[in-house]
Specification:
Radius of gyration: 21 Å
Helix content: 40-55%
Number of strands: 12
CATH architecture of the largest domain: 3-Layer(aba) Sandwich
Structural class: alpha/beta
Number of helices: 18
Strand content: 5-15%
CATH superfamily of the largest domain: Glycogen Phosphorylase B
Number of domains: 2
Shape: globular
CATH class of the largest domain: Alpha Beta
CATH topology of the largest domain: Rossmann fold
Distance between the termini: 36 Å
Strand order of the largest sheet: 9-8-7-10-11-12
């Protein structure tokens, strides 16, 4: 889950700046590694889509009740909500009733759908810490306090790479081209996209004029095991190393979501695909207000990368769209990379973990002064 990763970066930044911090919350392995006491491990319950959420309602209801009781018995100095609006907006309402300081990092995409959530944010959140440049003005125009803090992938995009060593660890030749396969960070996404991605990659290998190596990337060992069950063990899997694989690849096939921004910031051309529950898609087409589903296209306001949804995400079509991106001299590839350069300048003006940690420290100080 990307929220787990981004929240962990903020916690590490808080601790690095000094002081004694007791941090509790929900998340996954990254937050646990950062020393957070997890009240609930959400790594196996990350969901996407209305239908998938309904199936897990009982868990979320129990989680809400337990959190409310905990805050009433031992109120925190401040609450930082990270992404996950279905849960966090309900918790924010209770935090406001208790008079807690509240911040929201990686806010709901109300500019794309469900703008009614603006009212809940205005009523229950003290400050929005937004990661997309246009969001600051969007929320300010609706009466909310918001500031752009930079994109949380900034540090990862700037991190030095050791391409040759990374590829050798996967058993790959650093001198040959690599096609990265990123089918998703949820089990349901692996089920939908792993096999089509692999089939498309095999089509590309058959027509590409040079040797083309393949590698998958997933977030956790559990997802790697699930992937092995679905596609076998002929293709290496980078566990927790999606950014390294993206940076090492000539091009990537990726599901929609965080990985598209990551690939753009790393300058790696991509084809974006997604398959979802048909009912979720039916509802989305009636509720969503944006023209594209890949974040790179939304941010640039045009079709920068190919988007393939549902039946369009067939092995044949994925391969057809990806083939020119493997040729470093192809004009389509060069145009895409130029768009990525412009996007990088927009998103990486600030260091998100440092900015968010500063906002948390200010909120805690304010809460303690008010006592």
């Amino acid at each position: 889950m990307s929220g787990d990763r981004y929240a962990a970066d903020v916690v590490r930044e808080l601790r690095a700046a000094g002081g004694v911090w007791r941090v509790e919350g929900f998340g996954g392995p990254r937050l646990a590694e950062a020393g957070v006491r997890l009240r609930a491990d959400l790594s196996e319950l990350a969901v996407m889509g209305i239908v998938e959420v309904v199936r897990r309602l009982g868990f979320f209801v129990r989680l809400l009740r337990a959190t409310r009781r905990s805050w009433e018995e031992d109120p925190p100095d401040a609450v930082l909500f990270v992404d996950y609006p279905g849960l966090n907006l309900r918790l924010a309402r209770h935090a406001r009733r208790l008079g807690l300081r509240t911040l929201y990092y990686i806010t709901p995409t109300v500019w794309a759908w469900n703008e009614r959530r603006v009212g809940a944010l205005r009523a229950n959140v003290d400050e929005l810490l937004v990661i997309l440049p246009f969001e600051e003005a969007f929320f300010a125009a609706r009466g909310l306090r918001a500031r752009f803090v930079g994109h949380p992938l900034g540090r990862e995009a700037r991190r030095p790479r050791h391409r040759a060593a990374f590829l050798r660890e996967l058993g790959l030749d650093p001198a040959a081209d690599v096609l990265g396969l990123l089918p998703g960070s949820r089990t349901q996404e692996l089920r939908s996209l792993a096999a089509p991605f692999l089939a498309a990659a095999e089509r590309l290998r058959a027509v590409f004029p040079r040797p083309l190596q393949l590698a998958f990337a997933v977030a956790t060992p559990e997802l790697a095991a699930e992937l092995r069950r679905r596609v076998g063990d002929l293709v290496p899997i980078a566990v927790g190393g999606s950014a390294d694989l993206i940076a090492a690849s000539t091009a990537v096939l990726t599901k929609s979501g965080t990985a598209t921004v990551e690939a753009a910031l790393l300058g790696t051309p991509m084809v974006v695909a997604y398959r979802m529950n048909p009912l979720t898609l039916w509802l989305a087409r009636r509720l969503v207000k944006v023209e594209w589903f890949a974040m790179v296209n939304i941010l640039r306001g045009k079709a920068v990368v190919p988007e393939l949804l549902q039946r369009e995400a067939s092995p044949a079509e994925i391969a057809r769209q990806a083939l020119p991106l493997l040729d470093r001299t192809n004009p389509a590839r060069m145009r895409m990379v130029a768009e990525f350069d412009a996007l990088r300048e927009d998103l990486l003006r600030r260091d998100a973990p440092a900015e968010v940690a500063r906002a948390v420290r200010d909120a805690v100080s304010s809460a303690r002064r008010a006592r």
